[in-house]
Request: fold
Amino acid sequence: MQSQSSFRLRQSSLSTLPSHIEIPQYDASKVTTGIVHIGVGGFHRSHEAMYVNNYMNQTGDLSWGICGVGLRDADKKMQDTLVSQDYLYSLVEKHPSGERKVSVIGAICDFMMATENPAAVIDKMSSEDVKIVSLTITEGGYNFDPVTGEFIADNPDVLHDIANPTAPKLVFGYLLAALKARKDAGIKPFTIMSCDNIQHNGDVLKAMVLAYINLVDAAFAQWVEEKVAFPNSMVDRITPATTQDDIAELASLGIEDTWPVVCEPFHQWVIEDDFCHERPAFEQVGAQFVKHVAPYEKLKLRMLNAGHSVLGLVGSLAGFDTIHGSMENTALRDMLGEFMRAEVKPNLDPVGDMDVNEYGQILLARFANPNIKDALSRICLESSAKIPVFLLPTLNDNLANDGNIDISALVLASWAYYSQFHTSQQGKALEVQDQMADELQSAAKGYSEDKLAFLKVRSIFGDLVENPRFTEVYQGYLSKLHEGVPVLDIVETLAPQVSKAS
Reply:
């Protein structure tokens, strides 16, 4: 039912919002910072900030508010939006039935631009009230070589930060400066918690932080290694980019919000219970604390995230625009199910009492949600950072174990075609956002002289090009694509005949 009028989202308008909209059950103006979060985007606001909001709703403990930090000039838009709305924003859960659940989130209480005042950000992180620094900075923000896993010490921004310790550009310089200040002041260090989709994200973050600090102060690096906790975590919630239609629909429901967040109903957060300072009891609001996260994150990265890339790259070539649209194609849906069953599942570790088959079916249902129009362009952006993390580990396991590789090979062949032409097979322009876009396109264009040219980008593929079993399958698919064979015809040969049999 549409509202006759809508109200601008501010503290003063909360009491006037329609009753179907959930508002904070606490005074959001009294929330204080306990967490500094670097990289406030849609996913952070649909996930960690939602958990903090629900925790404060349940407990009334307002000391765990989030101070957002922007490391890039582009983050200024987020700061301006949140400030204009008293740091409130709307979270819209879109259910498959068409139901919309709208909540106002009050967990964020401040936002600072590191580019404008780095000293103030360091001071904030050094505050005794801050007990956790969390991050969603994407795979690229960790500054590691995707093949070797080593910290990229000659990155110009790293060199800048070493020379300018009070005005760094990267997260590592801020963490170092704040931890040093806390140590000098006799304040316990904060826990550093990655919320990015990287396997062993806490371990990776720790290794990169220590690598940076060792370049600056080896003795202090030893202190950090002994005193600071970097818990691994697994995070999950599909959160597509907000569109103007989402903003207009929300206004029809009663709220004018410049930048709401839309997401699916499902959410999951599995965290290693390894903190060096206090933490909120997030288990009271659905988070799961475990001794070892690795089996959970491996399951999620290899099924959900890799599954997204499967649909994103193959679906884009076929001319689809969204995950949901791709899932409406029976062959693509069946191929994705076969990828999970035949290529991913044999290489997974036991995951507590979780039923992996059921997990896969839940994923297929989530991807098929007709109200989560997750753009394939979003899924495919920065594929050079995603594919080595999400897909290649499964492929390498299957090559080592004589497992199935066909669907993985088709995905990489599709990526090569996508990278060369930046179009679908029908000629529709595809949006390409990737730090390595030029290098990938150059390599892919080498196909006419060398059909394996794309695989020779060793910073992504390592020595994959030297595996004859893989290259034979990959080359076969890529040749068919170049010959004009529709990718969906190839998909038909890979998808099990489930739907046809039924």
